[in-house]
Design brief:
Elements (H helix, E strand, L loop, with lengths): L2 H13 L17 E6 L2 E9 L13 E9 L10 E6 L8 E6 L1 H11 L3 H4 L9 H4 L2 E8 L21 E7 L6 E3 H4 L14 H7 L5 H38 L10 H4 L6 H7 L9 H18 L12 E11 L2 E12 L1 H14 L5 H10 L26 H11 L4 H14 L5 H4 L6 H4 L5 H17 L10 E8 L15 H13 L2 E12 L5 E10 L6 H6 L14 E2 L6 H8 L3
Parallel strand pairs: 3-6, 13-14
Antiparallel strand pairs: 1-2, 2-3, 4-5, 6-7, 7-8, 9-10, 11-12, 12-13
Length: 585
C-alpha cells in the first residue's frame, strides 16, 4: 500500500473521537473518568486519597479508587432507593433504625459500573494498592446540579465536595459477587433512615451554596466544557503528528509490523524495539543485553543448521560451574553455545551487563549507539551503578517460538540479528544506516491506531529519562484545567494561609473558578513512575473579579504564583514562552 494511503488511513483513525477523561471539576474531584451512564445519573471513577484529595499530593499507599455518582432524583425527589431495616453499625452495637440497599442499586454498581474500572483505568492494576482494595469499593453520591455547604468541622483545601450519601460494597469471597459491606461483615444494614434519601430531606439538613454562586456556576462549567473540547482536539492533533512521523519514517527494505502482530509474543517488548530500531525506547541496558544473549542462544538451539557448516568458521562460548565441598572441587554443570563469529565479540560482555559485572566502558558504547537524534541517551542512569531489572523481560521460549514461526532466514529475523549486532558494537540501527533486507516489503503490514499511540508514549518516556536542558525551554507536554481550591496557587497550605487571602480564596473555591496548568517536559520521573513536569499556572480565559483583592492581601510576593496574575486560553508551546508571560514579557 502506498505511503500516502497509509498516512491517510492512520490520520482518519486518529481523527475519530477519543475517550477523554471526564471529570467532576466543579466538585473538586480531579481526574474523574466516566464509567457508566443511564437514566439514574452518571457514574465516575477517580483515584484519590482516603480524604478525597488529589492523589499526586499523597503517598501511593494512601491512594484508592472510588466511585462518584451524580444521581438524577425521580419524580418524588428520591435519589437513592432503599428499604427500612434494623441496622448494627458495629457488631457490639444495639439494633437501630437504618436501611438496606435495594437490589437494583446494588446490581447497577456491581454489573455495570465496576466491570468498566479496568478498562477506563488501565493503570490501576499496576498500582501498589490494587491488590489491597480490589475486593472493596466506596461509592459516594451527589445530587445533580445541587451543591451544598459542608457539614465537616475541618477543611482541607484540596478535598472534594462533601457527598450526600455513601455506600460500601465488598466481594463475598475473593472472586465472589459484589454485595453491601454490612452483609459481608455480618451486620444488619446502613445506619441511615430512608427519609434522608430525598432532595427535600437533604435540604433540611444541608444548605445550598449561595444563589449568586449557583448562577455563576453556569459560566464556570461552560469554561470547563470549552477546555474539554479543545484539549480533546489537541490530543488528537498530537497523536496525528506522531502517526505522520511513524509513517514517514518507513522506507523500502525494512520489515514493519503492527501491534496486533507483536501481541502473539509474550515479554517481547525489547525484541520489538530492537527490530524496529527504536533503541531509545529500551529503558535499561540489561534488557538489550538479555535480548542479545537470548537471541544467540536460541538461534543455536533452533537454527544451528543455518550457522556456518564448518565448525572452524563458528565461534563458541562455554561456561563451566564448579563447587568446592570438603576440600574437593568438582564440576557441577556447564553451558555451551555456538554462533556466527561476529556475535562472539560482544557475547561475554553482554553477559557482564546482564549480570551487572564491571562493564562500564562497553556499556557506554551501547548507550552511544542508542542515542537520540538530539544527542540524549535513553538511559538516565548512565555512569551510575546498574540497577536491578525486574524479571526476565526476554524469554527463551518466546524467542524460540519467534524463530520457528518466522523462519531462521526470514527478513524479520535477519533484521533482528543485524540490529542486535549493531547496537552491541556502538552502531546505529539498520533503519538509520540505510540497510535493506530482501523480502522485507512483502513481509511488512500497515500500522494500526494503537501503534501511533504507543510511538507517542514511548517517545515521551524516552524524553523523560533524558530531558533536555532547562534553558532551552521544554517542548509542550500537556495542560490541565482544574477548579480553584483554597490554597491553590499560594505558597502556603490553606489552613496556614494569610487570613485575608483565605477569605477571598473561599469565595473562589465555592465557584470552582478554573485555573490552567501548563506542564512542560517531561523532565524525569517520580518514584511512582509518573512524569515530572515543569508546571506553570494561569487563570483560564479570564481573571476572576476577586483577583485584585487576592493580590492586595499578600504579605509577600511569593504568596501567589507569578502566573496567577495572568489569564490565557491555551498553554504556550514551550516553557520559555510561558515564562515570558509570567515575567510580563
Amino acid at each position: 500500500m502506498p505511503r500516502t494511503i497509509i498516512l491517510l488511513l492512520i490520520s482518519a483513525m486518529l481523527s475519530l473521537h477519543t475517550a477523554f477523561a471526564q471529570g467532576l471539576e466543579d466538585r473538586k474531584i480531579q481526574g474523574a473518568r466516566l464509567l457508566y451512564e443511564d437514566a439514574s445519573g452518571k457514574y465516575y471513577g477517580a483515584i484519590v486519597t482516603h480524604r478525597n484529595a488529589r492523589p499526586n499530593q499523597a503517598n501511593l499507599y494512601d491512594q484508592e479508587i472510588k466511585i462518584f455518582v451524580e444521581r438524577i432524583p425521580d419524580a418524588d425527589g428520591v435519589f437513592f432507593n432503599a428499604t427500612p431495616a434494623k441496622v448494627k453499625p458495629q457488631k457490639e452495637a444495639p439494633a437501630q433504625d437504618g436501611l438496606n440497599y435495594r437490589e437494583d442499586e446494588i446490581a447497577r454498581i456491581a454489573d455495570h459500573v465496576l466491570p468498566n474500572v479496568d478498562h477506563v483505568f488501565p493503570e490501576w492494576r499496576a498500582h501498589p494498592m490494587w491488590k489491597h482494595s480490589r475486593d472493596r469499593v466506596f461509592v459516594e453520591f451527589y445530587i445533580q446540579d445541587l451543591h451544598l455547604k459542608t457539614t465537616r468541622d475541618f477543611d482541607y483545601s484540596d478535598t472534594a465536595e462533601e457527598s450526600v450519601f455513601w455506600m460500601w460494597l465488598k466481594r463475598q469471597g475473593s472472586v465472589g459477587e459484589w454485595r453491601p459491606a454490612y452483609e459481608v461483615d455480618g451486620l444488619l444494614g446502613h445506619p441511615q433512615t430512608v427519609d434522608r434519601l430525598t432532595v427535600a430531606s437533604v435540604l433540611e439538613h444541608r444548605k445550598r451554596v449561595d444563589d449568586g454562586v449557583s448562577d455563576d456556576r453556569k459560566m464556570i462549567l461552560a469554561m470547563f466544557d470549552r477546555h474539554k473540547t479543545a484539549a480533546a482536539k489537541m490530543q488528537t492533533d498530537l497523536q496525528n503528528a506522531y502517526a505522520r512521523r511513524l509513517v514517514s519514517d518507513r522506507r523500502p527494505g525494512i520489515v514493519y509490523k503492527p501491534g496486533s502482530y507483536w501481541k502473539q509474543y509474550a515479554n517481547f517488548d525489547t525484541p520489538r524495539n530492537v527490530i524496529e530500531g527504536n533503541f531509545p525506547f529500551i529503558e535499561h541496558p540489561a534488557e538489550f543485553a538479555a535480548a542479545y544473549l537470548t537471541y544467540v542462544d536460541q538461534y543455536y538451539q533452533v537454527c544451528e543448521s543455518y550457522l556456518p557448516p564448518n565448525p572452524a568458521d563458528r565461534a563458541s562460548y562455554t561456561a563451566t560451574w564448579f563447587e568446592t565441598r570438603y576440600g574437593m572441587t568438582s564440576q557441577t554443570s556447564s553451558y555451551h553455545v555456538e554462533m556466527a563469529p561476529r556475535f562472539a565479540t560482544a557475547y561475554e560482555k553482554m553477559a557482564d551487563i546482564k549480570y551487572k559485572k564491571d562493564a562500564s566502558a562497553f556499556l557506554m558504547s551501547i548507550v552511544n549507539s542508542m542515542a537520540e537524534v538530539e544527542g540524549r541517551t535513553p538511559f538516565s542512569f548512565v555512569g551510575e551503578t546498574l540497577t536491578e531489572v525486574a524479571g526476565d523481560l526476554v524469554t527463551d521460549r518466546e524467542t524460540a517460538r519467534f524463530l520457528r514461526t518466522e523462519g531462521c532466514t526470514s527478513p524479520i529475523v535477519r533484521q533482528y540479528g543485524e540490529n542486535l549486532w549493531r547496537g552491541a558494537n556502538g552502531l546505529s540501527p539498520a533503519q538509520r544506516a540505510g540497510l535493506s533486507f530482501p523480502g522485507a516489503n512483502a513481509a511488512s503490514a500497515d500500522y494500526e491506531r494503537d501503534d501511533a499511540r504507543r510511538f507517542m508514549d514511548e517517545n515521551i518516556a524516552a524524553r523523560a529519562r533524558n530531558p533536555g536542558p532547562k534553558e532551552q525551554g521544554y517542548v509542550y507536554y500537556d495542560e490541565e484545567l482544574v477548579a480553584y481550591r483554597t490554597g491553590m496557587g499560594m505558597a502556603n497550605d490553606g489552613r496556614r494561609q494569610v487570613p485575608a487571602m483565605r477569605t477571598v480564596g473561599l469565595e473562589l473555591e465555592k465557584r470552582g473558578y478554573p485555573v490552567l496548568y501548563c506542564n512542560y517536559g517531561p523532565t524525569g520521573f517520580y518514584d511512582n513512575g509518573e512524569y515530572k513536569t515543569l508546571s506553570y499556572a494561569f487563570w483560564y480565559e479570564q481573571k476572576p473579579a476577586e483577583l485584585n483583592r487576592l493580590l492586595a492581601a499578600r504579605t509577600k510576593e511569593t504568596d501567589v504564583y507569578k502566573g496567577m496574575k495572568y489569564a490565557i486560553s491555551a498553554c504556550p508551546t514551550n516553557s520559555l514562552d510561558a515564562l515570558a508571560i509570567i515575567n510580563g514579557k
